[in-house]
Design brief:
Elements (H helix, E strand, L loop, with lengths): L6 E6 L2 E6 H4 L6 H7 L6 E4 L9 H10 L8 H13 L3 H11 L10 E4 L4 H7 L34 H7 L19 E7 L4 E6 L6 E4 L3 E3 L8
Parallel strand pairs: 1-3
Antiparallel strand pairs: 1-2, 4-5, 4-8, 5-6, 6-7
Helix pairs in contact: 4-5
């Protein structure tokens, strides 16, 4: 077996994470890489001594493995992760965090956006909403509601589906009323609601409009234009 593929244990305080030497040495100038490379025979490493507390080890390891991660939910958690990346000498993670933060929200009219995660199930889970047939769940985003004549209220900004149908009489839609491909490309923000908690978006060449929680979206890559 390639020695870099050897599994090792990383102890952070009282928590133990299993990973590989390859993952820990992905960024050769980082503290974790130096720790592993300077101790080639070790299979267990400990960090977080001397009063240093690391809260985001999972995110750090996922970034080392995948090169990207979803940012934590709150500004405080994002700042904690950034500080830990600096402590571990991981400027690549610091740059990634700053770049992702600049991709919003908030958004403005005319912004080009895309889903943060194109997997609907994970999007549901991020909002603590499940595929359980409970269409009466008041916490459900309007874009995931059935496209029936029933009047629903957005739990974030307070607009109703009746009002949205008046604004977009022929084009207001639920995501699940159209093919998957209708919402998988880059979109354009047509209207911003309240404090930018929600936006109305159309995708690609389609004229359909969806009312979406802004935190599910990010600014689109500049090399991924609306088509």
């Amino acid at each position: 077996m390639n020695d870099l593929n050897r599994r090792v244990a990383l102890q952070v305080g009282s928590d133990v994470f299993e990973t590989t030497r390859l993952t820990l040495t992905r960024l050769p100038n980082s503290y974790l890489a130096r720790l592993v490379l300077n101790n080639p025979q070790e299979s267990r490493f400990q960090i977080g001594n001397n009063g240093v507390v690391l809260k985001h080890t999972n995110e750090v390891l996922n970034f080392l493995r995948d090169g990207k991660i979803p940012l934590p939910e709150t500004i405080q958690q994002i700042d904690e992760l950034k500080r830990e990346a600096e402590m571990l000498n991981m400027p690549e993670l610091v740059d990634f965090i700053e770049t992702e933060e600049n991709r919003g929200p908030p958004f403005f009219r005319g912004d080009k956006v895309e889903w943060k995660d194109k997997n609907p199930y994970r999007m549901f889970q991020s909002l603590n909403w499940n595929f359980d047939g409970n269409d009466s769940d008041e916490s459900a985003p309007l874009c995931f509601r059935s496209n029936s004549e029933e009047n629903y209220t957005c739990p974030l900004c307070g607009i109703t589906t009746e009002q949205l149908r008046e604004i977009y009489p022929d084009n207001y839609r639920s995501i699940f009323s159209e093919p998957r491909t209708a919402t998988q490309s880059t979109g354009c923000v047509w209207k911003v609601h309240a404090d930018s908690c929600c936006v109305d978006v159309s995708f690609a060449m389609f004229s359909y409009v969806y009312h979406i929680p802004a935190k599910l979206l990010q600014l689109a890559d500049s090399d991924n234009p609306v088509t």
